[in-house]
Design a protein that fits this description.
Layout lengths: L2 E6 L7 H9 L8 H15 L3 E6 L9 H20 L2 H32 L4 H12 L8 H9 L1 H13 L1
Helix pairs in contact: 3-4
Length: about 170
């Protein structure tokens, strides 16, 4: 997956009192707007320095739409509200929303794969590729754990090898 570099400032760590004192030393009437912007940027660098970080963005599923993204965001809002209040009303609202979100995810995936299958009626290679992708179990992301397990118990790997040779 491609890595990208992002830049950000942690604005929550700014001390409002010291920032206010520093802002009072600036006088916008005496300086040009460019100098004023430069001064504000240097104050931001002082109170909330610009940080960079390499991040990996995983690809979203092809059926994951903006509507689903907004539903997920709304679910997070409801979850925070529930954690803050603990009220039964908020718990019920959160549960109902999560049920609706899960159903929307299932429907979107189903519609996506149905359209793929319907659109590949004349292309058998594409059709079988789609079906194999749907039916084949996903391989684990890290194969080290499965290799480690087979080395930990040689009798187990011998037994599984014998069974696969007979099957």
């Amino acid at each position: 997956m491609p890595k990208r570099q992002i830049r950000f400032r942690n604005l929550r760590n700014i001390n409002p009192d010291t920032m206010t004192l520093d802002l009072q030393h600036l006088s916008s009437a005496n300086f040009s707007s460019a100098y004023y912007n430069q001064s504000l940027n240097s104050l931001l660098d002082l109170h909330a320095p610009l940080k960079t970080r390499m991040v990996t963005f995983s690809r979203s599923a092809p059926w994951y739409t903006g509507k689903l993204r907004r539903m997920k965001t709304a679910g997070r809002v409801l979850e925070r509200r529930l954690k803050a209040s603990g009220l039964t009303v908020h718990r019920l609202a959160y549960r109902e929303h999560q049920k609706a979100y899960a159903q929307s995810l299932r429907d979107a995936g189903s519609q996506y794969y149905s359209s793929l299958i319907n659109n590949s009626t004349g292309n058998s290679k594409q059709l079988f590729s789609t079906i194999n992708h749907l039916l084949k179990p996903h391989s684990p992301l890290h194969s080290d754990s499965t290799e480690k397990q087979s080395w930990d118990n040689p009798a187990s790997s011998l037994f599984h090898g014998h069974l696969s040779a007979r099957g």
